[in-house]
Structure formats: C-alpha cells, structure tokens
Amino acid sequence: METQAQGPRIDPREFFEKAPALFCVLDSDNRIYQPNGAWERVTGFSLEALEGMRLEDRLHPEDRDPTRRTSRISVEAQGAIVQETRFRCADDTYKWLEWTMRVVFERGLVFCCARSIEQPRRATVTAARRLEAYLRRAPVAMIETEVGRGVVEWSSGAERIFGYTRSEVLGRRLVDLIVAEPQPETVVDAGFAIRDGRIPSGRAVATENITKDGRTVVCEWHNAPLADEEGRVRGVLSIALDRTEIERERARAEESLARFELLMRGSKNGLWDYVPQDPKNPGDPTQPIYVSDGLTRLLGITAEAAPKTLREWTAFVHPEDRERARLFFAEHLASRKEETSFESRLLRVDGSYLWVSSTFQSLWSESGELLRLAAAIVDITERKGAEADLRDKLAVIERQAASIRELSTPILEVQEGVLCLPVIGVVDSGRAAEMMDAALGSVVELQARFLILDLTGVPVLDTGTADRLLAIARAASLVGAKTVITGLRPAVAQTVVTLGVGMGDVKTLRNLKDGLRYCLREASR
C-alpha cells in the first residue's frame, strides 16, 4: 500500500514568527496581543512594546473613525473584514497597512493578518493627488450626480464655469441650478435615458446653461453612467466644456462669411484663392483653386466651366499678357511678398476681353512656406476706356496748342533776307523760348540778314519781358541777323527808361513801316 509523500514539517510557531505578514490578536479594547516578528520589521517597535498597545493610539487621526476607513467584506476570505489604515511607526512615520480581520464573537477577540501596502498605496495617493490637481486646474467641469442624492461631486472647473461653490451644490438637483428654462424636464428625461443606456455614453451635447450670476453660457456635455460593483447604475458622471467664446467666435465667423459671400455676390469684382497642397511647390500648375461667383460673372461663365486649377486659370489670360502675369506670379512667390498688383486682360465667354487689376495677397509661415494665396480681381475696363479717351483728348489738345503756338509766334518773310516777328500780348518765359526757337530757326533756314521785332501789340513792358526780347535779339545776331525793334509805344518807352533797361546796339524805330524801310535800305547797300 502506497503512502502519500509528506513535505517538511514546520513548527507552527516558527511559521508564525517568520511569516512576512503581520499577525496579531485584538481584544475588545482593540489592544494588540501576540504580535509576530513581522511587526518589528515593519513598524520598528519591539514585541514587548507592541504587546497590549491600543491600536487606535497608533492610527492616523483621519483613520480612527471606523466610518471613515476604507472597508469591505472579503468574499475570498469567507466574509472577513478588510480595511486600510495608516499606522504610526516607532519613528513617527505612517505606513499604510491592509488588515484582514475575522471576529470570534464567542471569545471577544479579533484575529488579524496585516500587510504593508505602502508602495502601492503611495502610488495610488500620488495618482489621486495628480488627478485632484488636474481636476482643480482643468478648464472643464466634472460633475457627479446620483439618483436621489443630487450632486455628489463638483470640481473646481465647475465652480469657475458656473459660479457655484461645492458646498452650495452638494445634494441639490443639477437641473435646478444651471439648466435654462424651459429645458429642465427635457434634461431630466435625458438623464434617465443616459442611466438606462438609451443615449450612448460619451455623446457630446451642446446646451445653453445659466450661471449663478445669471449669465448664459454654452457648454458641451459628455455624460456617462456610473455603476456600482453589482452593475447597477447609481448615477451619472458629466464633463462640461465651456464653449461660450468658441460659439461666439464661430457665430462671428459665420456672420463674416455670410457678409463676405453676400458682398461677393453683389460685387462686380471676383476672387480666386488656394491653400497649397505642397508648400514646397506652391506654384504647381495642377494646384486646385477656388473661384468666386463674382469672378464667374465677370468671365460670363457657369460654375461648372470655371477654372479648377492654376493651369486652367492661365488659359483665361490674354495671350499677350500671359508671360507678364506668369513673371509677376513667380516673383511674388519667390520673394515671399505679401502683396503684388498688376493689370492684364481676361477672356470672356463671348470672345471679348476685359481689363482687370489683379492683387495677390499671401500668408506665409515663419519658416517661409506659403499658407494661403488669394487674388482679388477688379474690373477696370471702364477705367481703361476712360484713360484711352483722355489720351485721345490730350492729343487733340496738344495739337491745338501747337497750332496756337504757331499762330502766337508767326515769322513773316516780308522781303528776301528780312523777317518780321509781330509780338502781341504778354511774353512770359515759355512763350519767349518758343519765339526764340521759331525766330532762330527761320533766320538760319531762310538765310535772313534782318529780324524785325514789332512790339506794337505789347501794351506793357516790364524788366523780365525786355530782357527776354533782348535775348532774342542777341541770339539772332549770333546767327548773322541784325535785330530791329519797332512799335515801342510812348508808355512802353518811358517804362524802359525808368527801369534802366539798356537796348545795347539794337536798332529801335518808331513803327514797322520805318523798320521795313531801314532794312531794305541797309540790304541794298
């Protein structure tokens, strides 16, 4: 008959003393008796000091109240009580111990087995502190509500968003605090739906809420049901993000976009723009572009026929302007300019061309990559037509002015070798220059020996006018013609004397008739 092999026999007392767990017995006064050697290693107290020590005297003040201890009934330990407490050691430091206790009522004793959970508990505490710090600083509200108990948790973020302190909301219904009329019943129904699982956990819901001071805020809510160990839903965890400013910015952006679209629809101008697919090649001809409705109206095309890429857009540019437009575009990108303007012609669907002013506006990153480029297209066909009309009118005016100048400086050949320049009106510097050019040109061309300046039509002669006329006379003598001045009125002659203008060797005669006689007589010699 085979016998069952037996392992080494261990003295129960030796096992008790050397086991890593802390064994002891507590009496009805919670005094420690029969501690094993593990107590010395963990707490630093001798066994003699531990014998008869009241457990409450060594527990952390927060753990002395049994109702505040973390306790549970262990199913694995057949109904034993499991608690976690902090024990003050011989060096006055606290260590976390997990107690597994079984009460022997007939003897009035509690058999205890404890173990140090300092490391895992420290990690748990650290994690809890981190979580608490996060919840305190997080820009979101974290709220826990329970059926029949109302609000049971209220984070610092909730205080900042809604204005209520934690003490003001605990035990109250959330719908009575922050839900705007007439939503409360709807929110209550939604809460039941979350707890019942009819609304998926985590679905985002945006609602308007009321703060303590009556302000309206827009919050994005994420809700999830909370269950107990048996799987029964006991409440809801809600996370709320204040989206008030985001919604305001979105509303402003939508309003701005609507205003821009309305403006572009009503404008005679157009726009095309794009965000580069490849920032390293922002001028890629295959780059897709956006074309506004205003631009399609300018070109007389439908949205379906609008250019979809940079290459297709180039086809709408007048052939004579394409190279110039390409150079402007390439220079704009190469120089990383913020703005570039130029004028060109665009092809309309009916085959005609219209003049436009194109202005490139660009956004560049700090690293020099193109973020976005927009081109504003302004129809300047009417302006170009007006400029052409103005140029034609200016040309006509210039031709008329030239004719007037010719009439104002007539050079008359009264006899072979004798020229006469009748002067009428005021002689300013501009007219004097024209008179000199005309007179000298005629003297040289006609080989004239005499130039008669007839001043009969000059009512007043000042120093400036006299100097200009004498300059003509001196210039004529340099090209071989003698100048004779005729028609000086008495008042003009008196002015010349008063001003002290010297006539030099210029011959002066009473009238044009005398001047002609003089020139003919001198010419016949």
User: Which structural class is indicated by helix and strand composition?
Assistant: alpha+beta
Please state the CA-atom Rg, rounded to the nearest Å: 54 Å
| End-to-end C-alpha gap | 181 Å
Q: How many individual β-strands? A: 21
CATH class of the largest domain: Alpha Beta
Low-confidence spans: pLDDT under 50, at least 5 residues? Answer: none
Cα shape: rod-shaped
**CATH topological fold name of the largest domain:** Beta-Lactamase
Strand order of the largest sheet: 2-1-6-5-4-3
- Name the CATH architecture of the largest domain: 2-Layer Sandwich
Number of helical stretches of at least 4 residues: 18
Largest sheet: 6 strands, antiparallel
Give the tags.
5-stranded antiparallel β-sheet, rod-shaped, 525 residues, Beta-Lactamase, 28% strand, alpha+beta, 21 strands, 18 helices
Architecture overview:
This protein is of the alpha+beta class. Helix content is 39%, strand content 28%. The protein has helices spanning 12-18, 37-43, 47-50, 55-58, 118-137, 156-162, 166-169, 175-178, 184-196, 244-266, 293-299, 310-314, 319-334, 381-408, 429-446, 463-478, 490-499, 512-524; strands at 22-26, 32-33, 70-74, 80-88, 94-104, 109-116, 140-146, 150-154, 204-210, 216-227, 233-242, 270-274, 290-291, 339-347, 353-364, 370-379, 412-415, 418-424, 450-457, 482-486, 507-509. The strands form 4 sheets. A 6-stranded antiparallel β-sheet has the order 2-1-6-5-4-3. A 5-stranded antiparallel β-sheet has the order 8-7-11-10-9. A hairpin with a 2-residue loop joins strand 17 (412-415) and strand 18.
